[in-house]
Amino acid sequence: MRGFLGVDVGSVSTNVVLMDEHEKVRENIYIRTQGQPIRAVQQGLEYIRNRMPADMEIGGVGTTGSGRHLASIMVGADSVKNEITAHAVAATSLVPGAQTVLEIGGQDSKIIILRNGVVADFAMNTVCAAGTGSFLDQQAGRLDIPIEEFGDIALKSNAPVRIAGRCSVFAESDMIHKQQMGHNLADILAGLCEALVRNYLNNVGKGKEILGPIIFQGGVAANVGIKKAFEKALGIEVLIPEHFSVMGAVGAGVLARDAVRVSGCTKFKGFGITEENFAATSFECGDCPNLCEVIEITANQKILARWNDKCGKWSSVLKTSKKIC
Q1: 129 pLDDT band (50/70/90 cuts)?
Q2: Any domain includes 243
């Protein structure tokens, strides 16, 4: 039996998924990246190795997320795709017929418009924390409530207060003001959920034709208060897939399977990479006015890859041929 790995390396979390040839997720893990993507990838692969069925072998691996290039060098990826592609593939794979994907992660948010299984339009918000998981974590900590209980408390509200949600700084100030006026916690949290949804629809979703079925994925999909606020604003049911928090990795796994079907073999380096000593460094090339900051990845002090140079002077030297089956 062949299994396929999907690795999604983001700024807040690193997710690793093991699926079979029929796109059924067999194992998955959600890890806090904590500024150490190399360690997070190794930790995720170690977890999968210890839980992988004895009769399964890895037939392919795909990477996505902001750290996809780094992860691809580490694992020997068969597919390296951006988050939009990976999330779209996962949505259409797990929820056939999906037309809109709402995705809110720890540091950014995005909307993907699908028509007939193809990405027709998309938008991302990467410059403001308002409405992202990190902002909700911060507010839950300030209010001394577990983030897991945030949504359930918000659902108890009968009269959500109106909170300015266009900016995280203003939203926090407005929340404090409402607390001082005597509003209860449930109404404040419900008001914050509605404010964040308004901000999302007015910015990320502006000008987009949002049609059902609507899929809500990303870590923030665990917040039932945000889900209810989306349904209230859109007037349509919002679906949350079973593996909502690791959908990027699911999409990467599906893409890896498709890539290997074309190539006929995998470039996966094996689980032994969990024990290798990887290191990432950088240096500035001063050979031209571009002053490129070149990224260099080593394993056990051996240079594996370099990238980020515009002319290819450093990266082209280390290009190797693909594995031949």
Answers
A1: low
A2: no
